[in-house]
């Protein structure tokens, strides 16, 4: 009987902890800047190496977002590179080339070191 109560209590606390973590991350995400919004506001731009960066005239408001997105992209490019026998750099460049046509008009893009709007 004691074991059953302890199991239920442990399960309750695990469930509660997961729920609180979910709520905290959801709340943070609600206030956080997302990539599409940042791109539309001109706070980030796409770079031909597959990553994002701060375009001309933008402040540092999106710096945390840039770090997070680039870290996620780096991991994805690493997986792509491993599966295809290419370098991470080549995977990033090829991904940019595939995604470029889908960027909305007005998106800041840096190609060969020069920034322009699509």
Structure in words:
- With about 120 residues, the protein is an alpha+beta fold.
- The chain folds into 2 domains: about 30 residues; about 80 residues, no CATH class.
- Helix content is about 60%, strand content about 10%.
- It is built from 4 helices and 4 strands.
- It has a 4-stranded mixed β-sheet with strand order 2-1-3-4.
- Helix 3 crosses helix 4.
- The longest helix has 30 residues.
- It is globular, with a radius of gyration of 20 Å.
- The protein starts with a helix and ends with a strand.
- About 15% of the residues have low confidence.
> How would you sum up the global shape?
globular
Number of alpha- plus pi-helical segments? 4
> What is the overall pLDDT average?
83
* Fraction in helix: 55-70%
**What is the rounded distance between the termini?**
68 Å
Number of domains: 2
Low-confidence stretches: 15-31
Encode the helix/strand succession as letters.
Answer: HHEEHHEE
How is this structure best summarized?
This protein is α+β, with helices and mostly antiparallel strands. It contains 4 helices and 4 strands.
List the helices and strands and how they pair.
Blueprint: H1 2-31, H2 35-40, E1 45-47, E2 52-53, H3 63-84, H4 88-99, E3 108-111, E4 114-117
Parallel strand pairs: 1-3
Antiparallel strand pairs: 1-2, 3-4
Defining key terms:
single chain; 118 residues; alpha+beta; 2 domains; four-stranded mixed sheet; 4 helices; 4 strands; 59% helix; globular
